[in-house]
C-alpha cells in the first residue's frame, strides 16, 4: 500500500479583489493580485489554492465571483473558495465559477444543515467546513478551544472539537482548521489543536495558522497528523518557496505530492 501523500496548500486572503495578509485577521496589508499569485504558487509546486474572501461575511455580501472565475481559469490544481457563502445557491455559483470545493464558516454555524444540503446536492468532497478556533476556558469548552466566526470577531458557544465531529456527520468532506491565536504570528501551528481534530474526524484536516518556516509544516504533517498544511505570509514575503517547503517535508520522510 502506498503512503498517503500530504499536501501543501497556499492561502490567498482576498479583500476587495486584492490579496491581503495580517496578524490574527487584522492589520491587513496588500501583497498582490490573486490571479497572478495563484499562478505563481502553482508553478512553484502548490498542491491546492484556497481563496478566502475575508471581508465578505463581515460586510454581509456575496463572494467576489469574478476573482474566482479569473483565478480558476489559470489553474490546473484544485481551488477552494470561501467567504460570503450562505446558501446552496451560493455553493453552486462558486462551483460554476470554477471552484472545486467551497468552504463555509460563519454560515455553517448559523445554519448547520447547510452542510447536509450542499453535500446532498454536490457531494461531500465539495464541502469544506472552515473552523476558526481560539483557546478558551476549559470549564466552558471541554477541548479548551472555542469556535469563532466573522474573521475571529464573534465568539460562539461551540466547542471546536465537537463542532468538527458534528460537521463531518452533517456532510463536510474536509476540515480547514485555523488557530486564530497563531494566525500570522509565525510561531508554528497549534499542534495540540490539530492533533485533537485529526483524531476526532475521519475526513482530511488542513492545518492553518502559524507557519513561520518549513519545519513548522513538517510538524503539522508529521507529529500532528494533518493531511495538508496551509501557508501564506512566509510565501507572500518571499521568505521561502513552496518547493523549498516540500523538499524539507520530503527530507523528513513524509510523502508529498510531486
Automatic annotation (TrEMBL):
Keyword Hydrolase on entry: no
A GO molecular function held by the record: lyase activity
Source organism, top-level taxon: Bacteria
Record localization: Cytoplasm
Record field: catalytic activity: 5-[(5-phospho-1-deoxy-D-ribulos-1-ylimino)methylamino]-1-(5-phospho-beta-D-ribosyl)imidazole-4-carboxamide + L-glutamine = D-erythro-1-(imidazol-4-yl)glycerol 3-phosphate + 5-amino-1-(5-phospho-beta-D-ribosyl)imidazole-4-carboxamide + L-glutamate + H(+)
Pfam families the UniProt entry points to: His_biosynth
UniProt entry keywords in alphabetical sequence: Amino-acid biosynthesis, Cytoplasm, Histidine biosynthesis, Lyase
Main location: cytoplasm
Enzyme superclass (EC): lyase
InterPro entries: Aldolase_TIM (IPR013785), His_biosynth (IPR006062), HisF (IPR004651), IGPS_HisA/HisF (IPR050064), RibuloseP-bd_barrel (IPR011060)
Pathway info: Amino-acid biosynthesis; L-histidine biosynthesis; L-histidine from 5-phospho-alpha-D-ribose 1-diphosphate: step 5/9
Family: Belongs to the HisA/HisF family.
Functional description taken from the UniProt entry: IGPS catalyzes the conversion of PRFAR and glutamine to IGP, AICAR and glutamate. The HisF subunit catalyzes the cyclization activity that produces IGP and AICAR from PRFAR using the ammonia provided by the HisH subunit.
UniProt cross-references to HAMAP family, sorted A to Z: HisF
Protein name (Swiss-Prot/TrEMBL): Imidazole glycerol phosphate synthase subunit HisF
